Amino acid sequence: MLMDSDHIKRLLNKYWNCETSLEEEQLLREYFNGQDIHESLKESAPLFQYFELKKAESLDESFDEKFRSRFRDSERVIRLPVIKIARIAAGVLVVVAATFFIHQEVKKSTSEEMAETYSDPRQALEETKRALMMISNSFNKAQQGAEEIKLFNEAETKLRGEPKKDKQQQL
């Protein structure tokens, strides 16, 4: 189909201004993918030829599997830092909870009569020892909870079949 180069130039101007209809764009594609392209319009031909070339391309059959495997790999990469952050947050939560409960216990045990005993240094020392022992016991309980979480994580790793990591990689 031989078209007037002036008509094509007008259509190109409309195209560059985003004013063409779908039918006019189809005319431009047909013209520039044909053989009789006017010399003054040859610089626009590669663009329309590129569009036709890309339209003809399709995805190969292994695209879906490649995409899924890459997605699974990236999901693992994202999941590892989240697990580490969750472990840290759990540890902080245990410490905060232990501190809160210790504070509540100390508040209960320091009644008005206990306030008077602080004037005696020996009684104050004994009371301090008792408070430190409570803190120590609470931290021991927290450590036991952390050990249980560690055992759970190791079991989960074994079930997934992932290689065991040393302590430096876990940090």
How would you portray this structure in words?
The protein has helices spanning 5-16, 22-32, 45-56, 63-109, 112-117, 121-160, 167-170. Helix 1 (5-16) crosses helix 2 (22-32) and helix 4 packs antiparallel against helix 6. It is built from seven helices and no strands. By secondary structure, it is an all-alpha fold. The chain is 77% helix and 0% strand. It folds into two domains: 5-56, no CATH class; 64-170, no CATH class.
Care to give the gist of this entry?
With 171 residues, this protein is an all-alpha fold. It has helices spanning 5-16, 22-32, 45-56, 63-109, 112-117, 121-160, 167-170.
Class inferred from helices and paired strands:
mainly alpha
Q: Provide the helix percentage.
A: over 70%
* CA radius of gyration: 37 Å
Q: State the order of secondary-structure elements, H for helix, E for strand.
A: HHHHHHH
Oligomer: single chain
Reported for the largest beta sheet, the result is:
none
How widely separated are the two ends? 70 Å
Strand content: under 5%
Mean pLDDT: 79
What is the count of structural domains?
A: 2
Strands, total number: 0
Number of helices: 7
Low-confidence stretches are: none
Coarse shape: elongated
